[in-house]
Design a protein that fits this description.
This protein has two domains: about 140 residues, Response regulator (Rossmann fold), CATH 3.40.50.2300; about 90 residues, predicted glycosyltransferase like domains (Thrombin, subunit H, Beta Barrel). It is built from seven helices and eleven strands. Strands 6-7-8-11-10-9 form a six-stranded antiparallel β-barrel. The protein has a five-stranded parallel sheet with strand order 2-1-3-4-5, sandwiched between helices.
C-alpha cells in the first residue's frame, strides 16, 4: 500500500482483550488507522462518521449482534469488507454455508496472526482500485443477495408484539440469517413487529425470533386471501437458527 494512503479499519468486539490485541497488531502495519468499539450499535455510529474500508466484527455481542450490525453497515457503505470473528462451531457452520459478499471468516482464538496481515494486504490492494458509483437499485439488489436464502418449509406461530391476542398460525418457504418470508392469511402493514416461533414439520425444536414487517403482497400462487410477507429479524439466536436448518437438512453440523 502506498504510504500516502491510509486504510481505515474498524474493530468491533465486546471483549476488551480482543479489541486491544487487534488494535495493537493492526497499528504495527504501515498506513493503517484503527478505531475500536464494543458493540454493533457503536459500530454503526462509527461507520456513519468515517469511511472505513475494513471491519473486524465479532458475532456475539450485547445490544446488537455482528450480523445485524453488518446488515446496517452495508447500507451505509456497500463497499466495506467485513471479517466476521467467531469461536462457535454452529455460527461458523451457518456463515460458511451462507457466505455473503465481501465477507471473510476468522476463528477465535486466532491461530495464525499472519492471516490477519494477509487480509489487510488484500483489502488494501482492492482499495487502490477506482471506487465505482453504486446506484440505489444496485444497493437494494446487493442487500437482497447479502446471504443465501434457504428454501425451507417451516411451521410458524406469531403474535403482534405488545398486543394481547391469540397466536396465529402460518407457514414459511424461505429463510435467511437476516429475515424470513411468511405466508399469512392477513395483510400486515410494514413496521409491525411480530414475535414468532418456527419449527420444521415433524420436529419439536423451536427457533424463536422477533421480526419486523418490511413488505406484504397478495400471493398470486395461492387461492383465497393469502399474502407473502417479507420480514427482517430484529432478534434471533443464531445457534437456534442453525439447528433449525440442520433439522431441515440444509446445514450439516457434523465435524
Amino acid at each position: 500500500m502506498d504510504d500516502k494512503e491510509t486504510l481505515k479499519v474498524l474493530v468491533v468486539d465486546d471483549e476488551e482483550v480482543i479489541r486491544d490485541f487487534l488494535t495493537r497488531f493492526l497499528n504495527l502495519q504501515p498506513s493503517i488507522e484503527v478505531k475500536a468499539v464494543e458493540d454493533g450499535l457503536a459500530a454503526i455510529s462509527a461507520v456513519k462518521e468515517e469511511n472505513f474500508v475494513l471491519v473486524f466484527m465479532d458475532i456475539r455481542m450485547p445490544k446488537m449482534n455482528g450480523m445485524e450490525a453488518f446488515k446496517e453497515i452495508r447500507k451505509l457503505n456497500p463497499n466495506i469488507t467485513c471479517v466476521f470473528m467467531t469461536g462457535y462451531a454452529v455460527e461458523e457452520a451457518l456463515l460458511v454455508k451462507t457466505k455473503p459478499q465481501e465477507v471473510i471468516f476468522l476463528k477465535k482464538p486466532f491461530e495464525n496472526i499472519n492471516q490477519i496481515k494477509e487480509i489487510v494486504d488484500s483489502v488494501a490492494e482492492k482499495s487502490k482500485q477506482k471506487t465505482k458509483v453504486v446506484t440505489d437499485e444496485q444497493k437494494i439488489g446487493r442487500d437482497r443477495r447479502a446471504y443465501v436464502r434457504f428454501d425451507v418449509d417451516l411451521e410458524v406461530v406469531y403474535t403482534i408484539k405488545n398486543k394481547e391476542e391469540l397466536p396465529r398460525h402460518c407457514s414459511s418457504e424461505n429463510i435467511s440469517p437476516f429475515g424470513i418470508m411468511l405466508i399469512t392469511q392477513e395483510e400486515l402493514a410494514p413496521g409491525i413487529v411480530l414475535q414468532i416461533e418456527m419449527k420444521v414439520p415433524g420436529f419439536n425444536k423451536i427457533c424463536k425470533a422477533t421480526a419486523a414487517v418490511v413488505w406484504s403482497e397478495k400471493d398470486k400462487d395461492k387461492p383465497n386471501n393469502y399474502y407473502k410477507t417479507g420480514m427482517t429479524f430484529t432478534e434471533i439466536t443464531l445457534s437456534e437458527l442453525t439447528e433449525l436448518l440442520s433439522q431441515s437438512g440444509k446445514i450439516s453440523l457434523s465435524p
